[in-house]
Amino acid sequence: MRVLKFGGSSLADMACLERVRSLILNYGSEKAVVVLSAPGGMTDSLVSLAEHAQAGEDFTQQWDAFASRSAALKHEVEAQYGDVINWPSLSLLRDKLDGVKLLKQCPASVNAFVISFGERISVSLMVTMLKVCGAKGLDATECIKTRSEYLDSEVELESTRNAVNKQIDIAEAGIYIMAGFTGSNASGELTTLGRNGSDYSAAVIAASLNADICQIWTDVDGVYSADPRLIKKATKVDRLSYKEAMELAYFGAKVLHPKTILPCAKANVPCEIKNTHDPDVPGSLISSQGTGDAPVKALSSLDDLAMLTVSGPGMKGKVGMAARVFGALANDNVSIVLITQSSCEFSISFCVYEQDLSLALNALEAAFELETQAGLIEPVEVRKELAIVTLVGDNMKSHKGLAAKFFASLSQAQVNVVAIAQDSTESAISAVISGDLCKDAMKVCHENFFTHVPSIDVFLLGCGLVGKELIKQLEKQQAWLANRNIKLNLYGVANSRQCVLSKDGVVFDQWESALSQSSTAFSLNQLEQFVKRNHLINPVIVDCSSSEQLADQYADFLKAGFHVVAANKKANTGNMAYYRALQQAAQSSGRKFLYETNVGAGLPVLDNLQLLFGAGDELLSFSGILSGSLSYMFGAIEDGLSLSEATTQAKQNGFTEPDPRDDLSGTDVARKLLIIAREAGLALELSDIQVEPVVPEQFAAGTSVEDFMTQLPELDAAFADRVQSAASEGKKLRYVGSIKDGVCRVGIEAVDAEHALYDIRDGENALAILSQYYQPKPFVIRGYGAGAEVTAAGVFADILKTLSR
After folding, report:
1. Which domains does the chain have, with CATH numbers?
2. Which residues contact 611 (CB under 8 A, 6 or more apart)?
3. Most exposed of 51, 91, 162, 385 (fewest Cβ within 10 Å)?
4. Is 569 a catalytic residue?
């Protein structure tokens, strides 16, 4: 014997009914009890009819739609299978609704009759469609015995066992069709088992008959690692234990009714979740057998919750206080979802559904009225709009560090934990969080525990040479990223005037046209709303501009939950107070501020410095060639070109800024040196750097670039003398940034063959670091430090560092 339950989506129309008929017949001569829900959406229509009637409103339109749909289903079945057997009386249903409207009251017994009408329609249709094989209907009110209320009633398992077996013996058929969701009380009156209670009906029948299996046929392939409506990459779980399934159902897994699993577990009847629309796909099997080695099976979430906290000096050490709290709630039928208590016994916190909040508060106020007046109990603290995220897996107890990973994932999602609960068997751990962050929390947790495909959500500011090259590299590296299970999307691009954002990601080869058509400018508020609306969990702002206005916003970016990757040097070379504020903002927000390219373009300069100083090393002295442009020019001068010729050649080859004075002034090198000094722990300002420019500061001041280049040969002779003087001593001129005894200097130096910078030319950068660990020979970092390609590569490397691994 097997029990088959079909949900509403499996019975929605004639095509669905035919599919269910075929599935039932596929079992051949094997006996089966088929439990049916109402056709999809019909129960909602009946609930709406009852509500309109109780409000005394005209429900003609709703009734006509319901009656028309019912008649259409009946007509389609009759056209192929003959007269429908035991069609429920719509006139009786209408009479009851008219009575409700007249009295403006809907007793629970009448409400139960109305909302369970759809299941009777399904049974009538399916019995007719299967009459050729002798299928018979079972009256659910004769089989399912319940106690207490008419709505959301509890099943009496022993009475039901006796009743079901008796009805099976009387009917003597191979296939039995029964309405789900429905039962009867001790007086024989119709009761219902709560919304979606047809699963519960099937489980109770399966347990009562000691069935071989209870199959729940629905519109999904089985139980998923998370709600697939929230998490697109949720995967099907092949096997679960009864306990795992109960935990998931209790904490919000939509595919399972919370009451379903217990009857099957008690009778040791396996329960299988299958997809009516794709029956060949293996489903999810719930049983007592082993569940594999995976420590975590799934994530579930429950929202629309409120947390109440009862506290006060009268709680501590007082026997029976918890019993009074929960007894008061039980008396008013308030369901408690989660409980936690402080170790000092000063307070008890628990979650209830928000719809029960007023009822819960009234019950507690009445129960503790005297203690509150005496100051022994404080007013109940209430937090609304909460959710619970739960990690479920029987094998969690045998794997260390899962709780730490869970809470680290919540931190990564920028989620604060309100309360924590874990069951004694360690098969589930729950965190109460803000409801509006539930989807973000689920995404990060699922990413870290199941898909293992971390995401990087990039917003690019600045579309100059480096920005354009970065977009090319992001596109080029997509296959490389995919091979390493990394998902990187470019969600936004902005220049100084326009900003384009796309929830599906900016298409790499179409970003320029999309940006040109945008009529909006970049703003942090706009970006924050975009991230929240699309539940992005690892947003990264990448600044490839030279904008001081953007640099001044970095602290705000970090506080808003963005990582910041900066090719722009303005932030790190602003005043020392802002430099420290940025470091503090990154630390307090849990986000990363990365700026490797500020000093050496693609060279790993700052990474190495931070590793050295983080290991307790101390800087003794530093000297470096920090400008690829000046490295190229001084190499050309070494080859015999004059200062003006070398500058012209460097400009033509794209090594300099559009205005070469930006390079020749030494300011760019001074900024880089300042960053290195600050990383070494020196509290300096840019004005503290001693700068010797390549050309006199007032030379050709205020002129155009063309006029400057025309006048530059005037300096050739004097500069040639310096070159010759150095050469006579076996030395070469280099433009060097140096740090010694806390003094930072930028200028032209003559270095000999023993110097680490002697051979550096043609656009190369080099840094010689003399430290406590590296002496008397310095630690040298050398490589090309100019050009959009290597700078973009350095930015790309920083972007990857935002991954929390």
Report:
1. 2-40+122-218 (3.40.1160.10), 298-451 (3.30.2130.10), 455-601+796-802 (3.40.50.720), 614-786 (3.30.360.10)
2. none
3. 91
4. no
